[in-house]
Amino acid sequence: MSVDVREDAWLHEEEPEFTRIVARVEDQARAEERVRLLAVVYLVVHGLGAAAATIVFLALAGTGLLSGDPTATWILGGIGAAVAALVGGLAIPGMAVGIGLLRHRPWARTTGIVLGSLSLLWVPLGTVVGVLTLYVLLQDDVRELFSWEHRESIPRSVRRASASGGQ
User: Fold this and answer.
1) Whole-number Å distance between alpha carbons of 26 and 20
2) From CA 85, how far away is CA 74, in angstroms rounded?
3) Full DSSP string of 59-105
4) pLDDT tens-digit profile of 64-77?
5) Structure pTM?
6) Please, what's the largest Cα pairwise distance for the chain?
7) SS3 state of residue 6
8) At what angle do helices 125-137 and 9-67 cross, to 10 degrees?
9) Region class of 97: left (phi > 0), else alpha (psi between -120 and 50), else beta
10) What are phi and psi of 124, to 5 degrees?
11) What are 68-113's pLDDT values in tens digits?
12) What is the distance between the alpha carbons of residues 38 and 18, in angstroms, rounded to a whole number?
């Protein structure tokens, strides 16, 4: 089958612009995939942190109760509550950032950078999460993904469908 060169001449004239648009869409899709992965990491790591906080509290408070000594109950319960408050206090913002990243909320990127920087001190798992966070959230294509201009360029109906999981 022969193709008339004149029929597809428009394709060759428009090709650089089309190629640029396709490359931009592909870059944006890769950025969204990296952000989605980071959000899942945040939800899993901080969800496990919240579970660990609960287990530590229950173990220490339970040990105090089983001892039968009121002083041991107060001391171990207090230590358990303090540890649970500390670990849980760090887990809750992390889970909020994970949800915000999934929904491309601009505040989630800023808060994620702060939490990622602080996580670098929590060796070894926090260091990995912190490096991954900073690597993903400081890239230009991700910065654009979380900008208000990008958000406003998406039709409201698409944003609503995206926020509700496409339902």
Assistant:
1) 10
2) 16
3) HHHHHHHHH--HHHHHHHHHHHHHHHHHHHHHHHHHHHHHHHHHTT-
4) 999 999 999 999 99
5) 0.75
6) 94
7) coil
8) 150
9) alpha
10) -95, -25
11) 999 999 999 999 999 999 988 889 999 999 999 999 999 999 999 9
12) 30
